[in-house]
Fold each of these.
Amino acid sequence: HLSSSSTGYKNVWRRASGRFWAKHSVDGRQDTIGTFATAVEAAAAYARAVGGFQPPPPTVVTESEGLRLHLSTSNTTGYAGVTFYRVGQYHARTRVDGRKRTLGVFDSPVEAAVAY
């Protein structure tokens, strides 16, 4: 993903430390992918995060560990309460008394959906 930014890569910036920061938008908010030694590493992480180098998404599982999972058509993970966190990780979050509560960080969207 090329860009006209100073690094030449979309959503990759150079930090004051000299390292490179990558971020992307998930469900309407900006999420940090990570900080990397080079702009190329940051750009590759961004591409993986937005699907540039990922295999096709797995089939959405409707049940796991004997639980019916909460599906969502408005969420890129396919599950309610589950959002992409960083490369290879997913947040499970819920609301309690109107405040967001993180239930944990998981290696797959299905694991996060079970926690939700």
Note: Residues 3 and 10 are 5 Å apart (CA to CA).
Amino acid sequence: NGGLERWADEVNGVSAMVGERSEAERAGRELLSRTTDALPSHVVTEPRGFATTCIVPSRLVGAIIGRGGAGIQEVQASTNTRIVVREIAGDAANHTMTIAGPLLNVCSAYMLMMKRYMDAEKLCDRDGS
């Protein structure tokens, strides 16, 4: 079928432009898939929810949160989670970031916030901040 062949050629052309995923990325995505597939439903639907906390450098907090909190609000809205960033008493160099909600939502929000973290780090490194 000519239409199907043209579509396959277009897909292959886009793949060539974008480039192949790295082996590490493929392995990471496979691990994520195996892990989520293995979770029993009682864990995924646990009504009490889950939380995770991590440390983020104070110098990146503004970029991670976004102007007027827009970055956090966007991630909260898309993942149905609650994200709180707080100062750490006695540690001006770092803040805590806590994400709470259903398990898979928390994991998704964490990944999105780590993308914001890495983007902020790259931006600060580029600007020399």
Note: The mean pLDDT is 86.
